Structure formats: structure tokens, C-alpha cells
């Protein structure tokens, strides 16, 4: 397997102020010196912008420890072609890691335009920029890595979900855009020999995560005395994956692009791959809520005598949701020796401690 040494590379990370993107950048600064990272984010108001600013501040603090490395942040939208062209012309990235996307299943029902703009037009702009990075004999982009999602599996009844499974029946626009990303990347890999890898993330959580995710939203509601809704009457399972495990997996994958090979027809065999990246251990939603409650009490976010039962309501499944997500990660384990190391209690404990400090409870 071909490997890329990250030292001295220039890496473009989109969605740099996002949950996964910011943690990936921090991890890259820790593991490769020197390294040059260009971050793009439009800091939209899908959720509290102060959280995104906090993540950027964490990066700015971290770079002080690594003076040999460089960090450049550009506030902009990947759907703006001129910004992408500017970045590729002036910085010539060796690797592109695309985390910029409009996330969320339920939000795609009420705000579909945001998904078309970011997840399709923005994604296309990046592919076109990668394509033209090879113009005039330039070395160009060595690997294009992008975030897909477990949502592409739709209402797949076979578990665990395997990358060999058909994913032709999305149950939300968000899922449809992510499947479209995989198809677009495959076409560009075939036509222009761009090494690309898609990663289907499974329910990523941790400190400074997205407030629209269940664990964060539940905490906010419990703290304000609101009732939390547990969908499908609690009969849901999620493959919760801690953020540190995710960014370690991405680091392994980004260093190993699919090999460029010419086929019998004289044309490139698409240097293209897709992997599941998850915890490989689905947890029942009611068990998850129980552990979250315990850790919130332990961190003194909520009092010992909090009436949880009075603030829980079991409700029917939401449109676009699925009852279970469960990742078969055996290809990632076999090819990259990837193994998630963070248990649910440990991960939620770190989140609860961070929440207490961030919101000064």
C-alpha cells in the first residue's frame, strides 16, 4: 500500500470550525511537524457560532506549541468557486480533507437548499479544483478524503452495515447528498485519476460536539427543565463513535490513498475507496440516556436528585430517522489496523466535564 508522509505537506481541511474538522486539525498538528494546514469554514448559523469560534481558538492556541508548522484560516463557503480556486492557486494543497457539509437529517426536511449548496455544489467545486491541480504537469492533489455518512444505508435491515450493501434507498435528502458525493467522487476518480476515499461516519460524539446531536441536545433540555423526546419509544440503537477514535482513523486513511493503476483498456482503474468508520458496537438509546444522566450528575451539571423520569417522553420515529446504525469496520481494521478505544461511559464522561467548564455551570 502506498503511504504518504505528512511532514511538510500542505493540507486543506474544509469545515475547519466544525466538530470533526477542528479535532482533525488539532490531531494533525500533534502528529506531524512541520505541517501546513489551510482551514476553510463559513461559520454559518446552523448552530451556536460561539462554539465554532471556541474550536478555532483551540487551534490558534495549539499552533503556538508548534512554531515550525503553519495555520491559515479562510472564512468562506466552499460553494463559492472563486474561494476554492484562490486556495488551490495560492496554496497548492497536497491533500484535501472535506468535512464541510450541511449536516443533520431533520434539518434537511425544512431547509433543503442548504444541502444542495454545500453538499453538492461545494463538493463539485472541490472535485473540479482537484482535477485541475494536475494541469500543466503539476503533481497536484495526492489524496482527496471526504466525509460520507451512515445515513446512506437508509432503512437497511441487514446489520451490521457493510460497504458491500446496496445504498440505493436514502430516506432523507441529507443521505441522498452523501450518496451523491460517493458517486461524484467515483466518476472523478475514473475520469481524472484522482485518488479519493469516502468515510461513512457513525454517530460521532464528544466534547464541543454539535448541539443538534442527541447527547448534547438532551443535556441542554435537562438543564433547562424541558422534556427530552426519545424516538421510536426507545427502540433505537446507535453506533456511537468517540471523536478521538474518528480523527485517528481519518489520519490513518489519509496517508494511504488508493493506488493508481491503468486497466486493460488503457484507462485508469478508479483509485477510489469507501469505508465505514464507527465503534462497531451499537448501544440502545435508553441505556445511552441512562449513562449520560449518571455522568451529568457525576460532573455536577445537574443535581443528584434530578427527576429524570419526569423529563423523559417516549415518542414515535421521526421522518428520515432509522432504528439502528451499526458499522462493519472489518475492512478498516484489516487494512489500517484501526480499532476504536473509547467506551461510551468514558466518552460521555469527557463530554460532561467539558460541558460543565464551557458553560461555567
From TrEMBL:
Stretches assigned to the NAD-dependent epimerase/dehydratase domain: 11-264
Keyword field: NAD
Entry annotated with the keyword NAD: yes
Coiled-coil regions listed: none
Record-linked Pfam families: Epimerase
Keyword Cell division belongs to the record: no
Protein's UniProt name: Nucleoside-diphosphate-sugar epimerase
Species assigned in the record: Hungatella effluvii
Amino acid at each position: 500500500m502506498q503511504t504518504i508522509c505528512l511532514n511538510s505537506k500542505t493540507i486543506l481541511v474544509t469545515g475547519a470550525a466544525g466538530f470533526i474538522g477542528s479535532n482533525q486539525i488539532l490531531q494533525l498538528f500533534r502528529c506531524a511537524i512541520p505541517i501546513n494546514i489551510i482551514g476553510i469554514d463559513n461559520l454559518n448559523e446552523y448552530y451556536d457560532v460561539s462554539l465554532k469560534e471556541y474550536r478555532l481558538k483551540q487551534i490558534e492556541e495549539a499552533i503556538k506549541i508548534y512554531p515550525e508548522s503553519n495555520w491559515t484560516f479562510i472564512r468562506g463557503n466552499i460553494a463559492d468557486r472563486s474561494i476554492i480556486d484562490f486556495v488551490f492557486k495560492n496554496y497548492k494543497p497536497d491533500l484535501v480533507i472535506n468535512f464541510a457539509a450541511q449536516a443533520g437529517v431533520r434539518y434537511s426536511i425544512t431547509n433543503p437548499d442548504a444541502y444542495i449548496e454545500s453538499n453538492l455544489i461545494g463538493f463539485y467545486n472541490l472535485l473540479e479544483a482537484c482535477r485541475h491541480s494536475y494541469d500543466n504537469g503539476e503533481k497536484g492533489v495526492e489524496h482527496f478524503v471526504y466525509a460520507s455518512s451512515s445515513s446512506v444505508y437508509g432503512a437497511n435491515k441487514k446489520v451490521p452495515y457493510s460497504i458491500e450493501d446496496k445504498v440505493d434507498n436514502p430516506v432523507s435528502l441529507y443521505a441522498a447528498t452523501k450518496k451523491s458525493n460517493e458517486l461524484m467522487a467515483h466518476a472523478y476518480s475514473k475520469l481524472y485519476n484522482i485518488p479519493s476515499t469516502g468515510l461513512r461516519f457513525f454517530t460521532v460524539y464528544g466534547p464541543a460536539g454539535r448541539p443538534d446531536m442527541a447527547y448534547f441536545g438532551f443535556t441542554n433540555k435537562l438543564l433547562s427543565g424541558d422534556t427530552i423526546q426519545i424516538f421510536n419509544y426507545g427502540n433505537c440503537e446507535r453506533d456511537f463513535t468517540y471523536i478521538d477514535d474518528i480523527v485517528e482513523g481519518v489520519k490513518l486513511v489519509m496517508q494511504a490513498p488508493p493506488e493508481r493503476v491503468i486497466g486493460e483498456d488503457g484507462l485508469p482503474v478508479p483509485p477510489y475507496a469507501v469505508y465505514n468508520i464507527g465503534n462497531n458496537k451499537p448501544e440502545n438509546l435508553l441505556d445511552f440516556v441512562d449513562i449520560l444522566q449518571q455522568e451529568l450528575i457525576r460532573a455536577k451539571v445537574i443535581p443528584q436528585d434530578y427527576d429524570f423520569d419526569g423529563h423523559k417522553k417516549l415518542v414515535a420515529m421521526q421522518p428520515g430517522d432509522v432504528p439502528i446504525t451499526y458499522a462493519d469496520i472489518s475492512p478498516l481494521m484489516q487494512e489500517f489496523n484501526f480499532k476504536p478505544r473509547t467506551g461510551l461511559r468514558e466518552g460521555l464522561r469527557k463530554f460532561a466535564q467539558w460541558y460543565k467548564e464551557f458553560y461555567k455551570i
